[in-house]
């Protein structure tokens, strides 16, 4: 390990702190729910760049978002995993000799060979400034726990009166797929101070969103409590995403009172079984969809992915167009956070159209009372409603391997008898139906309808 430029780093932190501490305040209990009243929407670097994304690529995606997606409500730019490692390679983590960058308090810092603007102890502040000036928001990914190297070096914890990293850790429940960190013992003196020091630093950098990994399986309630307190104390509204799933349904009450979004499943990639598994697991989470707290379907594996990714070769999404409509229909009617995983500057017109449909995004933003009507015989029906204009939304899915399946819903189950129907993806009027909707849906396909009740 190398602890670089200690004096410069300390000076940089002090200089940034001068501008932020004057605004620092403590947020009230569950005030964080106000920070994500609608499901967050943005871009994440994981699906296309894995652990190797560089600053110029982040900026290119931010520039694309401003030009093509911002007006549709997309706003977060998130740098995913291991931005503090200098020598990760495409296709997986370099576990043998990772070159970490961190400060004198055991806090990871951006690798300068990938994020050159972080020089002189500035961290991610210059990159977040670039993104903020475009009217967007900036996010990062971290792993739970404290760096192994900080423990080995017995680095001091900022604000903990001489307590060092080796006094607050355990090897128990260490992440099985990435060994950078150890578990923090939540009840140890210095544990809260370590997380406080992290979020003090992230607030100085201008972070608006944080995805914290390896929190959900098993569910690390103690560390989640530390994180919630640290965010509320840092003085900046940082949206919290816990990852990955499957988050246990037994933790629903706790996670919804501590996080803005939480993963229901492991990573969703561009294969059909990932989608059907997601729909299956989601069944138990419908009652927990609420403003400020969102069950999360994971990133959207569409467009050009795996340029230097963790799984597979550089490619456009392997999902068929019907399967892509199905994925986007489900994510939107379920009101999942929407985080696009592809390299946005590589988008084709079709991919862009999936992200900018006004009626679909209005449903995603404004709908309430989301519920599954049924999941049976390899068909699924999900509905919600818009309290602002009285619209009823209905998504029908054929998740079977049969070319066409008849999917039917009684209008009485939607609280109406007659309805005028519009196809939301095309904007075309389908017609008027009475008593029952019955649609022949393609294999792996879906329809998304807006219904207006008629007398």
Task: Characterise this structure.
This protein has 455 residues and is α/β, with parallel strands linked by helices. It has helices at 6-20, 46-49, 55-68, 125-133, 148-152, 191-205, 221-234, 252-256, 272-282, 321-333, 349-356, 358-366; strands at residues 2-3, 41-44, 76-79, 101-102, 137-143, 146-147, 169-170, 181-184, 209-213, 239-242, 261-263, 294-296, 304-305, 315-316, 338-340, 368-376, 379-385, 392-398, 404-410, 418-423, 429-434, 436-442, 446-454. The strands form six sheets. An eight-stranded parallel β-sheet has the order 12-11-10-9-5-3-2-15. Strands 16-17-18-23-20-21 form a six-stranded antiparallel β-sheet, covered by helices on one side. α1 crosses α6 and α6 crosses α7 (221-234). The longest helix is centred in the N-terminal third of the chain and has 15 residues, at 6-20. It is globular and about 75 Å long. It starts with a strand and ends with a strand.
State which percent range the strand residues make up. 15-25%
Mean pLDDT: 94
Give the low-pLDDT segments: 1-23
Structural class: alpha/beta
Strand arrangement within the widest β-sheet reads 12-11-10-9-5-3-2-15
Care to count the β-strands?
23
Radius of gyration: 23 Å
> Count of DSSP helices?
12
Q: Span from first to last CA?
A: 72 Å
How helix-rich are the residues, as a percent range?
Answer: 25-40%
Sheet bearing the most strands, described? 8 strands, parallel
State the shape: globular
């Amino acid at each position: 390990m190398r602890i670089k430029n200690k004096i410069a780093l300390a000076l940089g932190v002090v200089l940034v702190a001068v501008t932020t501490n004057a605004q620092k305040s403590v947020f009230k209990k569950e005030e964080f729910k106000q920070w994500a009243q609608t499901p967050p929407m943005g871009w994440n670097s994981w699906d296309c760049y894995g652990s190797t994304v560089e600053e110029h690529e982040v900026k290119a995606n931010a520039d694309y978002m401003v030009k093509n997606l911002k007006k549709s409500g997309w706003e977060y730019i998130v740098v995913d995993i291991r931005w503090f490692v200098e020598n990760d390679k495409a296709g997986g983590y370099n576990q043998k000799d990772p070159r970490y960058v961190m400060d004198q308090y055991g806090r990871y810092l951006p690798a300068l060979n990938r994020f050159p603007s972080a020089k002189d102890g500035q961290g991610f502040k210059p990159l977040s400034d670039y993104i903020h000036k475009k009217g967007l928001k900036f996010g990062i990914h971290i792993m739970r726990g404290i760096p192994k190297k900080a423990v080995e070096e017995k680095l001091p914890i900022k604000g903990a009166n001489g307590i060092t990293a080796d006094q607050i850790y355990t090897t128990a429940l260490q992440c099985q797929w990435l060994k950078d960190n150890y578990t923090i013992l939540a009840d140890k003196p210095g544990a809260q101070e370590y997380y406080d020091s992290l979020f003090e630093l992230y607030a100085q950098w201008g972070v608006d969103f944080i995805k914290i990994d390896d929190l959900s399986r098993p569910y690390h309630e103690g560390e989640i409590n530390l994180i919630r307190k640290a965010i509320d104390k840092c003085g900046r509204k940082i949206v919290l995403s816990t990852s990955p799933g499957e988050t246990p349904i037994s933790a629903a009450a706790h996670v919804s009172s501590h996080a803005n979004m939480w993963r229901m499943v492991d990573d969703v990639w561009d294969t059909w079984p990932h989608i059907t598994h997601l729909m299956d697991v989601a069944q138990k989470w419908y009652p927990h969809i609420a403003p400020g707290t969102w069950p999360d379907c994971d990133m959207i594996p569409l467009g050009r992915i795996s340029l230097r990714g963790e799984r597979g070769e550089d490619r456009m999404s392997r999902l068929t167009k019907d399967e892509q409509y199905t994925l986007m229909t489900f994510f939107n009617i379920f009101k999942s956070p929407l985080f696009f995983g592809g390299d946005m500057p590589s988008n084709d017109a079709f991919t862009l159209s999936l992200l900018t449909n006004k009626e679909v995004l209005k449903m995603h933003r404004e709908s309430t009372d989301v519920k599954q009507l049924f999941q049976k015989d390899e068909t699924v029906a999900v509905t919600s409603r818009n309290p602002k204009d009285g619209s009823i939304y209905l998504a029908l899915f054929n998740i079977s391997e049969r070319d066409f399946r008849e999917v039917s819903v009684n209008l009485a189950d939607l609280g109406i008898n007659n309805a005028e129907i519009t196809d939301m993806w095309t904007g075309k009027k389908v017609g008027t139906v009475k008593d029952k909707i019955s649609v022949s849906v393609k294999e792996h396909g879906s329809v998304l309808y807006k219904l207006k009740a008629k007398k």
